[in-house]
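Input.
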Amino acid sequence: MASFFAQALAETLWPTRCVLCDVAGSLLCADCMRALPFIDFYQACPVCGAPWGRIQCDSCNAVARQSKPIASPCRSCLEYNEASARIVKTYKDNGEQRLCSIMASMMARIVDPSWIGWAQAVTFVPATPYALRKRGFDHARLLAQAFARETGLACIGLVEQAHAADQRRLDRAQRALNIAGRFRAPRAAGFDRVIVIDDVTTTGATLAGAQEALARVQCASKLVTFARV
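Output.
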């Protein structure tokens, strides 16, 4: 009861506002939700999830495969633009953890139901130690837990990250080098099929690294992210 009244008082003094348009009422208002750049399933690449790769994908074709790791199969909810970037930044860097449930609900709605039936559990790409110290929480873990609640699957931390640097300041080649061999999955024994959750797909190097670690212990994986660059 005390918690309820404390929340009611906080909402009265500092009402929840939309992270995109600042209108009072909810973290993401209906108008802003409708305007988000959702990726069209029928236009997206069926392999890597690139927004316009259904017929000819420039992200995972034979030439691209020679220069970078390919994370697949992958589905992403939104294209990464100013709006989706602000949602991610508000969640990750500004600590608005209530966005987690909204993001996970959107992600769950774009996943093929057959993926949910196929998977034994949900796991996630863990934050680097630096990111964890900076933010105070593991954003991917919370997102995976919320996604698991949406889908009825268990959420289990199977992948570990060993001393990889933060990816956001690295170029494509540096990302691949930074991630190569940096993940391990010592806890994946007993799991054969999982869905891996992360917030953003940039080059796919991070997801590919986590997927490779799972594959080394005979665990197949499918990938779901909130946004895709």
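The longest strand covers residues 193-201.
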